[in-house]
Design goal:
Elements (H helix, E strand, L loop, with lengths): L1 E2 L6 E2 L3 E7 L12 E4 L8 E4 L5 E7 L7 E8 L8 E11 L2 E12 L6 E2 L3 E7 L7 E5 L1 E2 L15 E2 L10 E12 L5 E4 L7 E4 L6 E5 L8 E10 L8 E8 L6 E2 L3 E7 L7 E4 L2 E2 L10 E5 L10 E3 L4 E4 L9 E10 L4 E11 L2
């Protein structure tokens, strides 16, 4: 207490000890209060402060402009996860004759909370052309939500504010189950990652990594249910990380690039003479759709033939008498505009 003559304010306590759990919300106030009165001819009090940290004094009862007695306490002003440790909140109460200093020694206690994923689900697209043993997603650990990477689609963040406290440290990630859905809609569930094309490497880290073990097949969905655990055995809510293997367009393939066919001279117009057989291995129904077309170039005798959108070749007009072989070149195109060519050599049988 510092006096400047006369009667400085009297306070019920000038040294106070309070504590808050780190889970206390902003606005939470201590039950420890201090009452200060003018103790003299003054009718009001002046208050200044030198607070530093996540708590601040406040007037819990009374009006500084009108009352000669005020009641003070300290309240939380910031998220406490970042402030584990010791802090001080102080104020100076004065009247015309002196100043009285009041101090609160504040302890922010780390109350263990389970680690948690920042999202309940993640959906990650992976190309079917991804190399084996490639890293397709990472699982970092942060002690503050502000440290989380919110820009990358393939980052699955675990948050554990207690990782800085001995005994509360983060322990690891458990794979609870993996649900696999195949392109034909069949499903399988397993807890064994050893035979899966994608797996979580959780034996070292953080950060942990999802990697490819073997070549990926388009249309496969792998949904990993993950659980985070700390050294005290506390676990948070699960998250589901789903990898969708995307279809990369591949060109169609025909049975043969060239084919020789003998057709009798007397075959009639509109007779079907051949069916071009081409396939497309894409799982995506749009990419795998095929349509057939003919080349109308000078090196193709297209005027004698026609091809349907399904690949059936028919005679467009009667075969010529003075030619022994005709050439008909066609192409098939898929839904992604990739194509394959096919040439039909037609030998005319005059017998």
């Amino acid at each position: 207490m510092e006096e400047k003559g006369g009667y400085p304010p009297e306070c019920s306590s000038t040294q106070n000890n309070v504590s808050f759990p780190d889970s206390a919300a902003v606005g939470t106030c201590s039950t420890v209060t201090v009452q200060c009165s003018t103790n003299g001819p003054d009718t009001t009090l002046n208050v200044t402060n030198s607070t530093d940290g996540p708590v601040r004094w406040t007037i819990s009862h009374g009006n500084m402009d009108t009352d000669s007695s005020l009641v003070f306490t300290v309240c939380v002003t910031d998220v406490l996860f970042h402030f584990i440790g010791q802090y001080e909140a102080s104020l100076n109460v004065s009247n015309s004759t002196g100043v009285t200093s009041v101090t609160w020694s504040v302890t922010i206690d780390d109350v263990n909370q389970p680690p948690a994923f920042l999202s309940a689900s993640y959906n990650i697209q992976v190309s079917e052309n991804t190399a084996v043993q490639a890293t397709i997603a990472q699982v970092p650990l942060v002690t503050s939500r502000a440290m989380a990477d919110s820009t990358s689609n393939n980052v699955i963040t675990v948050w554990d504010p207690d990782n800085v406290t001995a005994g509360f440290e983060f322990k690891g990630i458990n794979v609870q189950s993996v649900n696999v859905t195949y392109p034909n809609s069949s499903k399988a569930t397993t807890t064994d990652q050893s035979n899966l094309p994608v797996y979580l490497r959780n034996d070292s880290g953080p950060p942990f990594s999802f990697l490819t073990r073997s070549p990926l097949s388009a249309g496969v969905h792998l949904a990993f249910t993950l659980q985070a655990e700390d050294e005290q055995g506390l676990v948070g809510s699960n998250t589901v990380v789903t990898f969708v293997v995307s279809d990369v367009n591949q060109a169609p393939v025909c049975d043969s690039g060239n084919f020789n066919l003998t057709v009798g001279l007397i075959r009639k117009v509109n007779d079907s003479i051949y069916n071009v057989s081409c396939t497309d291995n894409d799982v995506n129904s749009t990419l795998s759709s095929l349509t057939y077309h003919e080349y109308t170039t000078s090196d193709s005798d297209y005027q004698y033939f026609s091809i349907s959108s399904r690949g059936e070749i028919s005679l467009e007009q009667r075969l010529p008498l003075n030619v022994t072989t005709l050439t008909y070149t066609v192409y098939v195109i898929d839904g992604g505009d990739l194509e394959a060519n096919f040439t039909l050599f037609v030998d005319i049988d005059r017998q």
